[in-house]
Design goal:
Layout: E1 6-12, H1 14-31, E2 38-44, H2 48-57, E3 62-70, E4 83-86, E5 96-104, H3 108-118, E6 124-132, E7 145-149, E8 155-156, E9 172-177
Parallel strand pairs: 2-3, 2-5, 5-6, 6-7
Antiparallel strand pairs: 1-9, 3-4, 8-9
Helix pairs in contact: 1-2
Bound molecules: inosinic acid and magnesium ion.
Length: 179
């Protein structure tokens, strides 16, 4: 499918992201202090860069697992249907769990994932989202920890894509169509 031409305008620098990730990791480590092992669940694919940086700043014993849920096609609009494309490898019953998400937008993805994981009886279930677009929310849900609250812009970079492109940008930028 041909892509409309666009440019990416820088929004959050790699340096600002690194500083925020370090601060978030400090708060998360304090909140889970004393855990025997924290299971950090990355939501694929958008959180893969964030989770890699976050766990390296986390001064806690961690296990890393991944879950892939999909609500997006190759479009910038969300749908209410959320499919689980890849489930966790490990059990979470009785465990401390931290879900790591790239963006909370309408909130449907996080609501579905949270409901699914809560049904497995973890000891504690918290969420850390890098970005939050509260103006787009349709479900009343928020992450325990949020990196940055952003306006209603379509963003890419630092793991986040537009039609599977631009995940490798080291910063976060907004997409602006040029025609
Ligand atoms: P929600 O279910 O509407 O909250 O959508 C959350 C998911 O949509 C995120 O995990 C992203 O994968 C995707 N998404 C939302 N906003 C953006 C964006 O600005 N750029 C790229 N992906 C986005
Ligand atoms: Mg996502």
């Amino acid at each position: 499918m041909p892509q409309r031409p666009y440019v990416i305008e820088p929004m959050i620098s790699a340096k600002a992201i690194a500083a925020r990730v370090e601060a978030l990791a400090g708060e998360i480590a304090a909140a889970f202090a004393g855990t025997d092992k924290l299971i950090v669940v990355g939501l694929l694919r958008g959180s893969f860069v964030f989770i890699a940086d976050l766990v390296r700043e986390l001064d806690l014993p961690v296990e890393v697992d991944f879950l892939e849920a999909s609500s997006y096609g190759n479009a910038t609009r969300s749908s209410r249907e959320v499919r689980i494309l890849k489930d966790l490898r490990g059990e979470i019953a009785g465990r401390d769990v931290l879900v790591v998400e790239d963006i909370v937008d309408t909130g449907f993805t996080l609501w579905h994932v949270r409901t699914l994981l809560a049904a497995r009886s973890p000891k504690r279930l918290e969420v850390c989202a890098l970005l939050d677009k509260p103006s787009r929310r349709e479900v009343d849900i928020r992450a325990t920890w949020t990196g940055f609250v952003i306006p209603d812009e379509f963003v890419v970079g630092y793991g986040i894509d537009f039609a599977q492109r631009n995940r490798n940008l080291p910063y976060i930028g907004k997409v602006r169509f040029t025609e």
